[in-house]
UniProtKB/TrEMBL annotation:
Keywords: Coiled coil
Coiled coil as UniProt keyword: yes
Coiled-coil regions listed: 61-88
GO molecular function: DNA binding; transposase activity
Pfam families: HTH_Tnp_1
Name of the protein: Transposase
Gene3D superfamilies given in the database record: Homeodomain-like
Source taxonomy: Bacteria, Bacillati, Bacillota, Clostridia, Eubacteriales
Gene Ontology BP annotations: DNA transposition
Length: 94
């Protein structure tokens, strides 16, 4: 089994558990080569309204979250540039 924890793998792992409940969470997790607590979390997440959320490097739960992250980066960069200008003005003003 692959060890990537992408959304498809998580969904497949939950489906595997649902199809093999007789093995229990520990048995299924062992067969999938993942931790039992990890599989338990994925099962709980799959029962929620939003399903399994995938986050990490470049993975956002929605387009809104992606836009918020972009705006935060832009604000941080703008504030950094403003700090540089303030320092330059104070140096040139002397």
């Amino acid at each position: 089994m692959r060890k990537q924890h992408d959304k498809q793998f998580k969904e497949d792992a939950v489906k595997y558990y649902m199809d093999h409940k007789e093995l229990g969470v520990r048995g299924c997790a062992q067969n999938l080569d993942i931790g039992g607590s990890t599989l338990s979390k994925w099962i709980r997440d799959s029962k929620s309204e939003n399903g399994i959320q995938v986050r990490g490097s470049g993975n956002y739960s929605s387009d809104e979250q992606k836009e918020i992250a972009r705006l935060k980066r832009e604000l941080r960069d703008t504030n950094d540039a403003l700090d540089v200008f303030k320092k330059a003005i104070s140096i040139l003003g002397k």
